[in-house]
UniProtKB/TrEMBL annotation, chain A:
Pfam families reported for this sequence: AIRS (PF00586), AIRS_C (PF02769)
Domain of life where this protein originates: Bacteria
Listed name of the protein: Hydrogenase expression/formation protein HypE
All copies of domain PurM-like C-terminal, residue ranges: 175-327
InterPro entries from the UniProt entry: HypE, PurM-like_C_dom, PurM-like_C_sf, PurM-like_N, PurM-like_N_sf
GO biological process, one term: protein maturation
Domain PurM-like N-terminal: 51-163
UniProtKB/TrEMBL annotation, chain B:
A Pfam cross-reference name: HypD
Key word NADP present: no
One example GO MF annotation: carbon monoxide binding
Annotated family: Belongs to the HypD family.
One annotated GO biological process: protein maturation
Protein known as: Hydrogenase maturation factor
């Protein structure tokens, strides 16, 4: 009898174990996984209650909610991993409304065979990222799919937050004359990930800029909230996609100055080598703010005093343009359009 | 960036532009074709045309290996990739190139074909070694610049006795295409082509040297300046062309002396010659059949030639008849002259060769140039108001 109990209680061996289908089957193995990795890593009162949902209190006012899926390959890269990205990305989506993020959820789709030690590393760093940000992960879900039906691990996060009274940032709010501010150097995340991509590996000191921006946003709102028209985090598609999105939603154009856009020399060099346009390369810890001209100096000064905004710069202005073009004065003195990327950005042949 | 920033000095470019303006005869116009998509990209990316006087215009040539790959070759690759035993390795920018009836390698992959995106020939070789039960075919494409790497992969495959690796060869040749632009039967149909000189691709000439253009400059009495891909390289090449035209010369000049010699890389040429021979004729998308415009594997390497090994057939497939790529690639028309441009034909839905790769003439005009006219119109309206 004792032998049977021993065999039934499988040891949860993180160091050597791998995800198998039983970890997603709703039985004891799944319980071990959730307790042994996720609850340990995210530890908080809501999770300890052990429900399939969490009840929580919110202050009165306008609420924001967002959800996002993370499928980055490879899952580990210089400066972060898929888990930190999932926490930062969702916090930032909330913060771009000027809101204070309150709670997150995390859903995992894990491929059979994924090493437990890697999952633990991802979960631990998610737990640290959410604690540092002060935004707890209060509910979650785990699914396991057969080998070959996923790429290691996919994470989906949702988040909610509250918008401060009197603040109403809208994507159609940009007006001619407004200033365009970027909070720091562009392209760091995309280049860091590409440097570790299979078959494309190259040595670089660049690390991902992945970071939670809600603290920076709070400082900006305090310094010039009434003057901030809108904010956006330029993730996939880079600042080119972000500016084009704003242009079409606000029915305006942009004129930006290439020389004013902060960029690390290593990022410029990697993009040059790969034939990529850094304006299309992803960022995970930067924001673009469109600010009324009378508030631009105050907002820029507030960004500069925050650790995540030391390299912030005013990169151009909103202009009236029926075509919604994003135009750029090149470093060479010519002009060009900055367009959406067509398809995926890929290194060129020659 | 060392060795990059030096070639992007805007003030120096303005000096060169002033020299071009001073030297160009205001009573005539100058039309120069940059053959290579890399030059087209640099011209558009840095807004170089804004620096040139109005009578000096650039014509964007056919120099993009992705753009000039005909539909039939894409169809043949898709048909091969759909075979269960085949793993087709391809460069990423080939994935979206349209074949017949809206097909593409990307869509074939989604339909279950084993198509893998690689960054080099050696990646494909490694897949062949790692998966001996698969038939690994490398979709080889590119001008003289990339042919030596295909030759080296073949050499390595033979040395390692790799029996499951083969090459679908689509390597094309630059001088033959330039010649075709000036003297094919289509040209006579299209009328006079205004080209006063060519900017030759530096990367190609690092391999083949400048010498292959000598015959061509002499025969057609058109100057050729082999130039690098940085904006200062390009604008200096334009100055050199204007100077040749003013002097009545038609010579091959080398702007890219930092890497190009008259004879090129003879070792690379020897490797290419070992494995490849000329095709009598090869279809270029937008240009039609180009005599001696491409390479194939020599008969003794038939076992590594995917076309022979798998009895591949290149189906006859036609471009959209309204597509003006042929005229655009020859400089007879501009991208915006084509009625498909910006309507049904955009980089997201490319119909013709010039729109396929980001370095194609129409794609470059779409991405960087199409706003110029509109901006001018808006500025003019504002000035009137």
């Amino acid at each position: 009898m004792n032998m049977m109990i021993k065999a039934y209680k499988r040891k949860f061996d993180v160091a050597n174990g791998r995800i198998d289908l039983s970890h997603g089957a709703g039985g004891r193995a799944m319980g071990q996984l959730i307790e042994g990795i996720f609850h340990k890593a995210f530890d908080n009162d809501w999770l300890r209650a052990g429900n399939d949902q969490s009840a929580f209190s919110v202050p009165g006012g306008r609420m924001v909610m967002t959800t996002d899926g993370y499928v980055v390959s490879p899952p580990f890269f210089p400066g972060g991993n898929i888990g930190t990205l999932a926490v930062h990305g969702t916090i930032n989506d909330i913060a771009m409304a000027g809101a204070v993020p309150l709670y997150l959820s995390a859903s995992f789709i894990i491929e059979e065979g994924f090493p437990l030690v890697d999952l633990e590393r991802i979960a631990d760093s998610m737990g640290s990222a959410s604690r540092e940000a002060g935004v707890p992960i209060i509910t979650g879900d785990t699914k396991v799919v057969e080998r070959g039906k996923a790429d290691g691990v996919f994470i989906s996060t949702a988040g909610i937050g509250m918008v401060p009274d009197g603040l109403d940032l809208r994507s159609d709010a940009a007006r001619p004359g407004d200033a365009v501010i970027i909070s720091g150097s562009i392209g760091d995340h995309g280049v860091a990930v590409m440097s570790k991509r299979e078959n494309l590996e190259f040595d670089t000191d660049i690390v991902s800029d992945s970071a939670a921006l809600h603290g920076l946003v709070a400082d900006m709102v305090a310094a010039g909230g009434a003057h901030i028209r809108l904010m956006r985090d330029p993730t996939r598609g880079g600042i080119a996609a972000t500016l084009n999105e704003i242009a079409s939603q606000s029915r305006v154009g942009f004129r930006i100055d290439e020389e004013a856009i902060p960029m690390k020399p290593e990022v410029a060099a990697a993009c040059e080598f790969l034939g990529l346009d850094p304006l299309n390369v992803a960022n995970e810890g930067k924001l673009v703010a469109v600010v009324a001209p009378e508030g631009a100096d105050a907002v820029l000064a507030a960004i500069h005093t925050h650790p995540l905004g030391a390299e912030a710069a005013l990169i151009g202005h909103v202009v009236a343009d029926d075509n919604y073009f994003v135009q750029m004065l090149t470093s060479f003195g010519g002009g060009r359009i900055v367009d959406w990327l067509s398809g995926e950005q890929l290194p060129r042949i020659c | 960036m060392k060795y990059i920033d030096e070639y992007r000095d805007g003030s120096l470019a303005k000096d060169v532009a002033r020299q071009i303006t001073a030297l160009a005869d205001p009573a005539r116009s100058y039309h120069f074709m940059e053959f290579c998509g890399g030059h087209t990209h640099a011209i558009s990316r840095y807004g170089l045309e804004d620096l040139l006087p109005a009578n000096v215009r650039m014509i964007h040539g056919p120099g993009c290996p992705v753009c000039v790959l005909p539909i039939g070759r894409i169809d043949a690759a898709i048909a091969l990739a759909m075979r269960p035993e085949i793993t087709l390795c391809t460069y990423g920018d080939l994935m979206r190139v349209p074949g017949s009836n809206g097909s593409s390698l990307l869509k074939a992959k989604a339909a279950g074909a084993d198509i893998r995106m690689v960054y080099s020939t050696l990646d494909a070789l490694q897949i062949g070694e790692a998966e001996p039960d698969r038939e690994v075919v490398f979709f080889a494409i590119g001008f003289e610049t990339t042919t030596p790497t295909t030759a080296l992969a073949l050499k390595a495959a033979i040395a390692r006795g790799l029996g499951n690796f083969s090459i679908f060869c689509n390597h094309v040749l630059t001088p033959a295409a330039i010649q075709n632009i000036l003297e094919s039967p289509d040209v006579r149909k299209l009328g006079t082509i205004k080209i006063d000189g060519f900017i030759g691709p530096a990367h190609v000439s690092t391999v083949i040297g400048t010498e292959p253009y000598e015959f061509f400059a002499e025969e057609f009495r058109k100057p050729v300046v082999v130039a690098g891909f940085e904006p200062l390289d390009v604008i200096q090449a334009i100055l050199m062309l204007v100077r040749q035209v003013s002097d009545g010369r038609h010579e091959v000049e080398n702007q890219y002396i930092r890497a190009v010699t008259a004879l090129g890389n003879e070792k690379a040429q020897a490797e290419v010659a070992n494995f490849f021979e000329l095709r009598e004729s090869f279809e270029w998308r937008g240009l039609g059949e180009v005599p001696y415009g491409a390479l194939r594997l020599r008969p003794q390497y038939a076992a590594y030639d995917a076309e022979k090994r798998f009895s591949m057939v290149t189906p006859a497939a036609k471009d959209n008849p309204a597509c003006e790529c042929g005229a655009i690639l020859r400089g007879v028309k501009k991208p915006a002259d084509c009625k498909l441009f910006g309507t049904v034909c955009t980089p997201d839905t490319p119909m013709g060769s010039c729109m396929v790769s980001s370095e194609g003439a129409c794609a470059a005009h779409w991405a960087y140039g199409r706003f110029r006219e509109k901006v001018r119109q808006v500025d003019a309206r504002r000035a009137v108001a």
